Amino acid sequence: MDVEVQGAGPEAPFLGARDLFETERTVERPVTVRIVEDPDERTRVGHTDEGHWLTISRQAATSAMARELALHEFAHMHLYEQGHPSHTQSTEEAIFLALAGRSVEQRKLTHCYQIANHMKDIYADDLWLDVAPADKLVAFLESSLAAAVADRPADPPAWERLTPASDPEITAVNAAFALGLVERNGLVGDGHPIYDLAHAAAADAPAVEFEAFREAFRSLDPDPDESEYRKALVDVTRAYAGGKRPAAD
């Protein structure tokens, strides 16, 4: 893997992640990591025919999670190169198919994009968790979920996976994602505190079918075809924001 780090920040987390990732998989196209000073800069990835780029704040690049974050993003790049349906399916198309002709609140529509990102993240995490310990990821999910359940504002996070200070409904779905992910990969035991946090989030949003979302994330087909993945994404979108059909004349 060809990884170039640009900007005022450490190279070690990204080169270390590269070395770990290459023990199982690789990214064929060159990767450019752009470290920026703005602590509010959202970690994001882009793809072109010539290569991939990762934009990340210096705060995130120097955090304890930096290597794991890089592994996660390398996994997204690998899935994109492999043409995995989770990374080729248009989110906009799936949301349109799920909600066409229905009236949906703007906040729920926004949340649908976050749920679609959770679906992509499941597949990325399935890859990198094969090559690195999961303890930092589990601790991150637990602390992020605790902040969201407490509905307390937080400093800009190093890794935006769950949303602190969010409304109860998307917090419940985020909790279902966290449990689905850790159970899918066997990361925690039954008595782990993340279960109490997740159940508290579910109790705060009784209208959300928490167990259905948990199972949907946990049981995503590891190797779906395009049609199967599109259906899974449409199903979770409709389950969260099905909305109302306009009344007949």
Summarize the structure.
The chain has helices spanning 12-21, 58-61, 66-82, 85-88, 91-99, 106-128, 135-150, 168-184, 193-203, 210-218, 226-241, and strands at residues 3-6, 31-36, 44-47, 52-57. The chain is an alpha/beta fold and 249 residues long.
- Largest sheet properties: 4 strands, mixed
Low-confidence stretches: none
Give the helix/strand class: alpha/beta
Number of domains: 2
Average pLDDT for all residues: 91
How would you describe this protein?
The chain is α/β, with parallel strands linked by helices and 249 residues long. It has 2 domains: 3-64, no CATH class; 85-241, no CATH class. Helices cover 55% and strands 8% of the residues. The chain has helices at 12-21, 58-61, 66-82, 85-88, 91-99, 106-128, 135-150, 168-184, 193-203, 210-218, 226-241, and strands at 3-6, 31-36, 44-47, 52-57. It has a 4-stranded mixed sheet. A hairpin with a 4-residue loop joins strand 3 (44-47) and strand 4 (52-57). Helix 5 (91-99) packs across helix 11 and helix 6 (106-128) runs parallel beside helix 8. It is globular. The protein starts with a strand and ends in an 8-residue tail after the last helix.
Task: Please render the helix and strand layout as text.
Elements: E1 3-6, H1 12-21, E2 31-36, E3 44-47, E4 52-57, H2 58-61, H3 66-82, H4 85-88, H5 91-99, H6 106-128, H7 135-150, H8 168-184, H9 193-203, H10 210-218, H11 226-241
Parallel strand pairs: 1-2, 2-4
Antiparallel strand pairs: 3-4
Helix pairs in contact: 1-3, 3-6, 5-11, 6-8, 6-11, 7-8, 7-9, 8-9, 8-10
